[in-house]
Design goal:
Layout (H helix, E strand, L loop, with lengths): L10 E7 L3 E8 L4 E8 L11 E2 L1 H16 L7 E8 L3 E5 L17 E2 L7 H9 L17 H11 L1 H6 E6 H10 L4 E2 H7 L10 H6 L7 H4 L6 E2 L11 H7 L6 E2 L3 E2 H9 L19 E6 L3 E7 L9 E5 L7 E7 L3 H9 L4 H10 L4 H12 L13 E3 L17 E3 L7 H29 L5 E5 L6 H11 L3 E4 L4 H14 L5 H8 L2 E5 L6 H26 L2
Parallel strand pairs: 1-5, 5-11, 5-12, 9-10, 13-19, 19-20
Antiparallel strand pairs: 1-2, 2-3, 4-7, 6-7, 6-8, 13-14, 14-16, 15-16, 17-18, 20-21
Helix pairs in contact: 2-3, 10-16, 11-14, 12-13, 13-14, 14-15, 16-17
Length: 550
């Protein structure tokens, strides 16, 4: 916690709602995380591909962690509050009470999570329309966006649909809870709901997909008032929310961001002078922010709109004001690594040995790879082992949620060596997927020279080095590991008026910690791995075509 010497510093609170936990941080004007707290939140999986949460549970966790980080701090020095969250769908009635998103009628389970894939037939129907709004999502809408989920509710839960007062993206629900204002963030409605900054809502789209009832009262249910990220919402924190959060009444509350976009904000604008990076003295458009957690997002910005097949966007001012955003992504990265490692027969042995050495399982695996590599570079251990990582479908750049994961090169071995190798091959596959996204973005007109990584996976040195080696680009890690929380705090700092712009706050509060350079001597090996990687999906489509001919 901050000491007496720091008490004159101005502070900002950032709150981040991830898939499985809520975190808060107290951040100063130089981007230093002074205090940090985390609390888990519940996930229900009532059936395959259905993932639900509770908005009440999420808000209670927000209150708990925020109270924790500001305990003992002079309230007069807390200037602003910013939220980010997953792009999950929150459903409430006309009195703002939770409404069930499930056939069991459990009203407290009123959130359809971002990773929920229940609306497959609905998204297929939407994509079949070939409506012009699809041009802004890479040509194909994802099942993880909100329109297919809305359509699923209308078709499957008519009772809930009739009672709905408001549909919120989770980041907007949080700013409403804090301020009592139903304004939406430009980030959420542009990236996940088909709103455009120049035309607003497109009536013809909602009519074409059968959701014209959302047009009532100037789209009141999904957002009739839209603010730019970082813009102050209403009159600030309400008395009730101030009590809940342990913060001063009336402090500035910012229009929110999706969690990945907050991570981008926390890293992409950092001052890189003196680090000998190719992006030094180049515009911010030469940088790609990667937010790597349960899933991964790849954020690139441009001065003019770039339409990239299979990559979401371009979205104007959705992350950095005045710039267009393209967003690639992988639906399962951290979740995939956990799935592969914990599902292996040697996992109990790994768990026991890691505990005995007082290391995390991933630190232990990285050390074990160093032991078995002998004279080879670690990455070369997978010369005969290859993974296609789309165990939860492909978000970018193939936009095919029906794709499945693949592993080629398995043997009958069941020991810790084999677990370490499949772990390595999975990390490489994720990095090869990033290379695939990068190549498509660059072919469309992006010119990216440097990767900026944040999120939980950026703490894993093997994950970082494989991304540098496989893409051939240097990787910048921020000084503060919790870049998403710094991004949320940047929003609060802007809403407070302490910074003239988000760009100014990004440069001041986003700081470089370490740079990881690619090993160019390994280029030929990873070029060959990439050839195999692309062949895997080609073969998957071939054998599916054969089986579909039955």
């Amino acid at each position: 916690m901050p000491g007496e010497k720091q008490s004159a510093v101005q502070y900002y609170v950032g709150v981040d709602v991830g898939s499985a936990s809520v975190r808060a941080a107290l951040v100063d004007g130089f981007g230093t995380v002074v205090a940090h707290s985390e609390r888990p939140i519940q996930i229900w999986e009532p059936r395959p591909d259905h993932y639900e949460q509770s908005s009440a549970d999420i808000w209670a966790a927000c209150c708990s962690v925020t109270k924790e980080v500001v305990r003992g701090v002079d309230a007069s020095h807390i200037r602003g509050l910013g939220f980010d969250a997953t792009c999950s769908l929150v459903v409430v009635d006309k009195q703002f009470q939770p409404l069930a998103v499930n056939s069991e009628g459990q009203n407290h389970r009123n959130v359809i999570m971002w990773m929920d894939h229940r609306a497959v037939s609905q998204v297929q129907h939407i994509n079949a329309t070939q409506h012009r709004v699809l041009n802004y999502v890479g040509g194909t809408m994802s099942v993880e966006m909100q329109p297919p989920k809305l359509l699923w509710i209308k078709e499957n839960l008519p009772e809930s649909w009739e009672k709905v007062g408001y549909f919120f993206d989770l980041p907007d629900f949080l700013s409403w809870k804090a301020t009592g204002v139903t304004a939406r963030s430009l980030c959420t409605v542009v990236c996940k709901w088909t709103y455009t900054s120049d035309r607003g809502w497109d009536d013809s789209f909602w009519k074409m997909i059968g959701l014209e009832d959302l047009m009532e009262d100037k789209y009141e249910k999904i957002g009739s008032h839209v603010l730019s990220p970082g813009e102050a919402v209403g009159r600030g924190l309400t008395p009730e929310a101030a009590r809940d959060l342990g913060l001063p009444e009336g402090i500035a509350v910012a229009a929110s961001l999706i969690d990945a976009h907050a991570g981008g904000l926390g890293v992409i604008g950092a001052d890189v002078k003196g680090h000998n990076l190719p992006c030094e003295n180049q515009p911010i458009t030469s940088r790609l922010a990667m937010i790597c957690g349960t899933s991964s997002c790849h954020m690139g910005v441009s001065e003019t709109p770039i339409f990239v097949p299979g990559v979401w966007g371009p979205y104007f001012s959705a992350m950095v004001p005045g710039l267009w955003l393209n967003e690639g992504g992988q639906s399962a990265t951290g979740k995939l690594i956990d799935h592969v490692v914990r599902g292996h027969v040697a996992f109990p042995e790994l768990e026991a040995k890691a505990a005995a050495s007082a290391h995390s399982i991933y630190t232990y695996l990285n050390s074990h790879l160093d032991l078995i590599k002998k004279s080879l570079p670690v990455g070369f251990l997978t010369v005969d082992l290859h993974v296609w990582p789309d165990f939860h479908g492909n978000r970018s750049p193939l936009t095919d949620l029906t794709l499945k994961g693949m592993v080629v090169g398995l043997t009958l071995s069941r020991g810790l060596d084999e677990l370490a190798l499949i772990y390595l091959a999975t990390i490489q596959a994720i990095a090869l997927g990033t290379r695939h996204i990068l190549e498509v973005m660059q072919a469309a007109g992006h010119d990216i020279s440097t990767l900026f990584l944040c999120g939980g996976l950026s703490k894993n040195p093997l994950f970082v080095q494989m991304h540098a080696d496989i893409t051939g680009k240097p990787v910048v890690l921020s000084k503060e590991v919790e870049s998403v929380l710094v991004g949320a705090a940047i929003l609060g700092a802007c809403a407070s008026g302490d910074f003239a712009s988000i760009q100014e706050a990004m440069a001041k509060m986003g700081r470089i910690g370490r740079v990881v350079q690619p090993n160019h001597e390994h280029k030929r090996f990873y070029d060959k791995k990439y050839e195999v990687f692309l062949k895997l999906v080609e073969h998957q489509r071939e054998y599916r075509s054969i089986m579909n001919s039955l």
